[in-house]
Amino acid sequence: MGRQVGVIVNRKGIIRHVILGDHHSILIPDISFYRRGLGRLKGLRCIHTHFNRKEGINTEDLSDLALLRLDAMVTIEVKDNLPGQVCFAHLLPPNPENQQWKILTFRHPGAVDLPFAEFIQELETETQKSQDGLSPKETEERAILVHASQHPRLEAERSLAELAELARSSNVEVLEKIWQRVPRYNPAHLLGKGKLREILMKGLYLGATMVIFDQDLRAIQINNIAGMVDLKVIDRTQLILDIFARRAQSKEGKIQVELAQLRYLLPRLLGRGTAMSRLMGGIGGRGPGETKLEEDRRRVKQRISSLERELKGLSRGRRERRKRRAKEALPVISIIGYTNAGKSTLLNQLTGSKVFAEDRLFATLDPTTRRIAIPGARDVLLADTVGFIRHMPKDLRVAFKATMEELEDAHLFLHVVDATSPYKKTEIVAVEQILKEMNLLTTPRILVYNKIDLLEEDTPASNPEAVYISAATKEGIDKLIEILPERLAISLMITGCFTITTIYF
Fold first, then answer.
1. Which of 358, 431, 423, 441 is nearest to 392 (CA)?
2. pTM for the whole thing?
3. CA 245 from chain center: how many Å?
4. Of the candidates 399, 411, 467, the residue with the CA atom closest to the CA atom of residue 444
5. Does the domain made of 141-243 have the CATH classification 3.40.50.11060?
6. How many angstroms separate the Cα of 335 from the Cα of each of 250, 252, 339?
7. What is the strand order of the sheet 141-149 is part of?
8. What mean pLDDT is predicted for residues 265-270?
9. Per CATH, the architecture of 319-495 is what?
C-alpha cells in the first residue's frame, strides 16, 4: 500500500491503538487519558514503519516522544516489504549535557537486545530521583510559568513576578519561570514547537502538573497546546478567575465571579464552526439536529441570562442602600489601590474592624463599608474596594461593574501603595489608568505609602503630599487621621456641597 503503519503498545505488551498513516507520516491518536504522574512517563511506546533508511527518527518523532512523554519512539525501516534497520529513541533523565533524548540503532528487529521492562523502570526511577531534593509543599498544583512577548526582559520579569504571586494566591507552587521573546505570536500555539518541547521536558524533570501562560490564549491556542503537551494549560485570565472564585464570600460576589467565568468560557467552546448555531432553538433545533457543542453553548447562555437577572435584583438593593446613604448626607472615603497593598489592613486599623486580610493578591474581594468618626468632623463612611491589577480581565470588569460603581459615590480616595514593591510607580499608573477609564480622576485623593516598617532604609519622603504609614504597626496612622478632616473638607468644597451626588446606570 505504500503507507506507514504503527501501533501504540503499553508496558504489558498489549496493543492499544493501530494507526494507518500515509507514505510520510502517521497521526498519533489522543492518549491524554492514559497514566500520568510526577516524574512518570506515559507508559506507552509508539512503533511505526519508515520507508527511508536515511530518515530514521525524524524531528516530528522526537517532538511526539517529548511532548507526549512516551516511553519510547521506535521506527522500523521497510524495504521490499521486509523489515530493516530499527531506531529506538527514549527520553533522558536530567544530565549535565542537557541532552533530552538518546537514539539507539539496531541492524534488524531481531538484533534488538534490550530488556525493555527493566530499562524503562530504571529510566523512570532516575527521572524521579531528580525531584527528591524538592521540598514537598501542600499545594494543589505545581506549575511552570511562561511569558512570551516583544517586551524588554525587565518588563517580562516584572510580569512573571506578578504572575508568580497570582499563582501563590491560588495555592500553586511555581517551579520554573520561562521568558521567550517572540517577534510575533504563533497563531496556532503562541510559541514554536521547539520551545513547547523544552517546557514539557522541564515539567517532566520538575514534576509539574500545569503550564500557566502570562498572555491570554485564544481558544484554538489552548486546545492546540493542551493537545501537544501532557500538562494542564491555563492562561493569566483563568488564573485570576480561579482566585476570585476562591475568595468570593458574599452571594453577589459569587454571582459576579460565576458570570465572569461563563463569559470567558462561552467563546472558547470549540467545535466544527458555528454553522449549527442557527439550530439552537425552535423547530428543527432539538434532538439529533443539535450538536453537543451547541447544547453546551445554549446552557451557558441560559445560565448567563439567569445570573444577569439575579445580579440586577441585587443591584437594586445596592441602589436603595446608596439612596439611604445619600439622605444621611454622610461623606464617603474609599480606599483604593493595587491588590495586596494593604487596603483591608488599613480599614481594620481605622475602624477597629476584623475584615479578613492576608499577604496575598486579591485576599479580599467583597466590598466593605464602615462608619467612623474622625476628629473635627462628623461621621464618615469608609469603604474598602476590590484591588486593582494591570490587565484586569475584561469579563471581571464587566461582572464587577455594580461593585466598582461604589467608587462614584466617594468624595475622597485613599490611594494605598505598597512602599516595598519595586514596581510601585507602574502600579500607581495602573490604578490611575482604571480611574481614568471610570472618569474618576477628578476625585481628590491622598497617596498613602504603606508597609514602611518593611523598608530596610529610613522612611522615604520624596513626595511631600503623600503619607507614609505601616497599617500593621500603626506607624504614621495618627498623621493620616490628622490630615483627613482638612483633605475631606477641601474635597467637599470641590464637589460643591456636603451631600452625595449618586449616579445610577
1. 431
2. 0.72
3. 13
4. 411
5. yes
6. 19, 20, 11
7. 172-181, 141-149, 210-213, 232-235
8. 76
9. 3-Layer(aba) Sandwich (3.40)
